[in-house]
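#struct-help
A.M.: can someone run this one for me? Single chain, 578 residues.
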Amino acid sequence: MELKGSRCVRLSDGHLMPVLGLGTYASEDVPKSKSYEATKVAIDVGYRHIDSAYLYQNEEEVGAAMREKVADGTVRREDLFYTTKVWATFLQPDLVRSCLERSLKKLRLDFVDLFLIHLPVSLKPGEEILPIDGAGKVIQVPVDLCETWEALERCKDAGLTRSIGVSNFNRRQLEMILMKPGLKYKPVCNQVECHPYLNQHKLLDFCKSKDIVLVAYSALGSHRDPRCVPKDSPYLLEDPVLKAIAKKYKRSPGQVALRYQLQRGVVVLAKSFNEKRIQENFQVPKSKVYESTKVAIDVGYRHFDAAYMYQNEEEVGEAMREKVADGTVKREDLFYTTKVWSTFLQPDLVRLCLERSLKKLKLDYVDLFLIHMPIALKPGEENFPKDGTGKYILVPVDLCKTWEALEKCKDAGLTRSVGVSNFNRRQLEMILNKPGLKYKPVCNQVECHLYLNQQKLLNFCKSKDIVFVAYSALGSHRDPKWIKGGCPQFLEEPVLNDIAKKHNRTPGQVALRYQLQRGAVVLAKSFTEKRIKENFQMFEFELTPEDMKVIDGINRDFRYFYLDFAIGHPNYPFVGEK
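D.P.: on it. Structure tokens below:
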């Protein structure tokens, strides 16, 4: 599970879920049209996660709003994440699919993004939502939840839903599914009541340990429906402590309650039919990327590196536009880099990837457009497409034709410069020697740090007037998806620390300064204001030739990023290194 500073979390099956969703449940006295209007407003504001259910009886309205916003160009269907749930009268395994098909028919969609078991309690099948016997009691019936889960797995296999999960499950019930013999797909999430009065800390810890996302409903307190909530229930948003913190940050109590969940690693649903409140709630997930970009511009940074794959270009673009609007910088002062991801390396898809980035950034052009890596993955909406056995689907590609597509993007004015990333010398020479080459790569962005100083590749790039750009210059971000545990931390090297102490600098500043003095452009990643400022001070001192020679000796030819998933691809760039 990935959350960190992003507006999306990567589910265990690889799909992305926006961390803030619009809840659409309404009590019976609220007109269904409210769901239609609220959904449209929410999409205009920026929500991309919409949560509903068969039980809510509003999917026609929600679906109409979604289709309208797709039709008018506000969003694409693939930008939206829609959740529905199988209701308790459909929990018998042979009825599960029919419930989902009814939802799809009302929505007029071909698939949903997430299909949940609404609650682990089964009611008598039939057309009544709450079947009642002659004594006025709700009629409960037994069900084997493991067999119900198998029915959800079949819905996923049939392409009717991309992901499957549960709602209102306790730890024992989750364990029952996880330990089910023959389990094909585990639940990607558990949607439960969660707010400051019920923080579900133990369940959250358990879910995190199993890579199951916890999704919070009633995060702002209850909707006060008398059928579900006692009249004397306390009002969360009137809590004195919550109000005091809200006052401190000049926010509403609701915004603080939502932010609390996000910072705990919880995906949160915010329900409102009020336009002002919908907009207010969406001001919560200003990500670390957004904040750090603004801080960096204020400090003096003018070069920003991102990529389609990072899934944060909306935030980076918003921060850049805000600093242009307030007069801190002009657009032409900023240098922005993006990259075409591996699922778009087929020549006819390259421009599409760049156009998607530009749309998210709300920019007319980027300054630099790179091939992210020389390895192609199967085209599609999944960043890391896998086959039935869980292996990544690699496909061949002619990198020379991909390069020609980048040249066309430059000619179209969508980017000012074009380059590559993670290319080895042979691959660079292949582009440089390509018949009819119109523009050579202006740079090659590669992993480069004190344990992997890439001296030979640096020398070759210099000889061809190709700028060498170093990423992971301060070491890896330790993401387990890319980096194996136990990797060494070169910032703890005694020699490096001695040099830092001599210059009254940090080891990180010395590591960055080393790259600059070698003639490399260096990328320094941090979400901490203090560290962002500290890194920018690398221009304030200079290493001696003796310092440079000592640091050269730290090199181990040790690579953090081996791109293990691509080993065996004909374009795998690190052949012979491992």
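A.M.: thanks! Residues 33-45 form the longest helix (13 residues).
D.P.: also worth noting: Confidence is low (pLDDT under 50) at residues 1-6.
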